[in-house]
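Side project, low priority. Logging it here so it doesn't get lost.
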Amino acid sequence: MQAWLAGDEESPTDLDLWGFESDHYTFLDLKKWLKEKVEKKKGKGKGKSKEEKGDKDEGTSERKEKSKQNWTATLKIYLWCLTWMWAILMPEITQHILFWLLIIWLFQWFPSAILALFIFIQPVIAAKEQPFPNILFDVFSEFILSNFGSNITLSATLLILFSMIDNVDLLSLHARQQNAKLKGEKNVDATAWIRLLARAIQEKIGMDSDDLFEDDEITEYTTEKGRSILLSLKLDKMAKLLKLYPFNKERKVFEGQLKPVSHASIDPVHIICPIAAECETLSCKGWALHVHTKIRDIPTATLIKGSKIFEYAYVVSGVCKICKTLYSAEHERAHDETQGYYKVHLNSAKYLKVGQKLWVDRAFSQSVLNGIYSFHASAAAYTNIGTIALEMERK
């Protein structure tokens, strides 16, 4: 256009530049020419962008393909490690080795099917529990009175009982070492395992450990080692009484590792009630509180105490017969002539109601708040975790 306006000899003709020939050209013709020029440039730009986009798509597809290959290789390594780990944990590996080899072979040919198998079938490796020892109380009390001192306290008795129940792995080690099976092994009555437990119990009881022995069993010259041996023999008898001894004397067979003892049958009954023992209104002068709900209508709720879930907790409120103030576990409701009924929440409450039938203690609520503050966890995540934990306990 500049060459045509300057009248240059090498300038394009009117037909080539304007697309038509005329004696004179107006600003409308120039505007039309500029518009056509702009549209041609846009068309070239679109073609270029499409080519660049095609190159980008090819690069993206290559990266996706490489990422898919790396993911498949990582998954194969993971499944190999997982297979060997499970094979080691299997008690009867000879019965399962062919199964695992089949799984590996199938994965080489049908990786999608095996991946779906691992996604939809989630194995849970958990030790089964044995029931709490269900012996008669008179049998247990007779054993305590005949083997321990007459001054033994209830706290010491319960300490010994729960120390035995919560150390089944140690009792399995003791029973195995006590009964020789192989050449070179020796039968030992008071093994180092049971003596270690006896020593720990003595240190826990402290100054009152002499009450664990009868008067004619120890003297002032009895050493600490001698005391541990005497107590370990008593613990050995107690383990056999509680059936926490995995060795069959008649068949002379070691029956294997003891399973953990379930505490479900001895879980306490929780009643969520007011923390105030009497009415705190000055005019009532400490009037006794009465149960506000009829016994047959007392509701049940789920209580989360620490990390343990109790499904059947009873919720009870109290009432003062004088001022009609209602006392709950987390709040109090009183009546005022000017304000009417008003509610006061208690800062010293032991339990907090967080749902229609869900209560939690201070330890759990504090952990939830700390998790939300420190780890940016949501309340919905804690709800999901609690639901899963409750379902696992029910199973």
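Brief comment: The longest strand covers residues 308-315.
Revisit when time allows.
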